[in-house]
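Lecture notes, unit on protein representations.

Consider one protein chain, 210 amino acids long.
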Amino acid sequence: MSLSPVAEAYLTALLRGDPRAARVIVDTALTDGMRLQELYLDVFQQALYEVGRRWQDGEATVAQEHLATATTQTLAARLSSWLAAVPESGRTAVVTGTEGELHALGPRFVGDFLEGEGWTVIDLGASTPSADLVRAVAEHRPELVCLSTTLPANLAQAQAAVAGLRRLPDRPLIAVGGGAYRRDPAIAREIGADVHAADAAEFLQVIGGR
């Protein structure tokens, strides 16, 4: 994977276990004019993909992967208010991770980007049980539900969640994404989703065109 100089420096700080250096790299990039969406997608996302690849190949430890994720979550939480816009009435989305998923950054990125477009976002975090997700959606009646699944083993849970959402009388648009889909919309269609996107930027393009 070819990383930009900023993403490479950020990755190095993550693997070194140096959250302070990671924060300085982010602050410097923003001061130099990098847009927040570019930071999320080209730095945070790409660096974490590389950390995950190294962990799978035995080149990074579980502790390094956990610290990289926690550091990025902290920085994203600090920056998310910069993306937010005044909510537009009637545009509400629920974002969450599939039951069994411990990865919350994907839904977080999508939620932050939606807020930047003026949506009201209800973030249920990682690993929301399917039945609880359906109850929350029935209560809040959002226009959109975004469901992230990283591990292929959790696609059965994603399918169960989608099936429950589709049975709601006033069902929302159901969007899915995450590594489990391998960038293949056919897998999303097989579990009954309405929309698939490879990342948060593509997701906004897809939703904006509907």
